[in-house]
What does this fold into?
Amino acid sequence: SQMISGIPGEVAFDGPTRAAGVVIDSATAANNVFGRAMTYNDNTVESVQAGGAGVFAGILIHPKAYAIDGIAMPNGAQGEVLFMGEVYVELTTDGGVIGDLVWFDTATGELGHGTAGAGQTQIPNCVISRHNVSPETPTLAVIKLTN
It folds into this structure.
C-alpha cells in the first residue's frame, strides 16, 4: 500500500514514545521546521538548534499543538523533540525503503536516507519504518528512532 497521509513532525503511531521539552535557539530560525533534526547547543539550559554538531536531541514534533504561521517555530519558543518513537518526516532524498538509515544535514537539520556524507550526521538507531515512500509523496516517510 502507498503512504499519502501524515505531516512532517506528527507522531505516526501509538507505542513506546519518548520526547523532551526544549527551548529552540538556532542560528537561522527559518530552519526550526517540524520534522527536522535538532541537536543540543547549550547543555545547561536544554536549548536545541536545527542541525548542528552537538549531541542529537531528537526530531521537532507536534506541529498541530502550536499556534504558528507556517511550518517553522521562532527562536526562544518552547518545543518538543522526539528521541524514541515513530514520526512523519520530509526527506531531501526520495526513493527511501523500509530499513534505510537516516541522516541529517548539520547546517539545516533536513533529513535524508542512506549513509551520511560530508556535512551530514547519521542519526543513531534510526531507520525508515512501516512504509516505502510512495510515488505520490516520494519524500514523505515514517522514521523509527529506538534510542
About this structure: The beta strands are 18-24, 37-42, 47-50, 56-61, 78-90, 101-105, 111-113, 120-128, 140-146. The radius of gyration is 14 Å. The first strand starts at residue 18 and ends at 24.
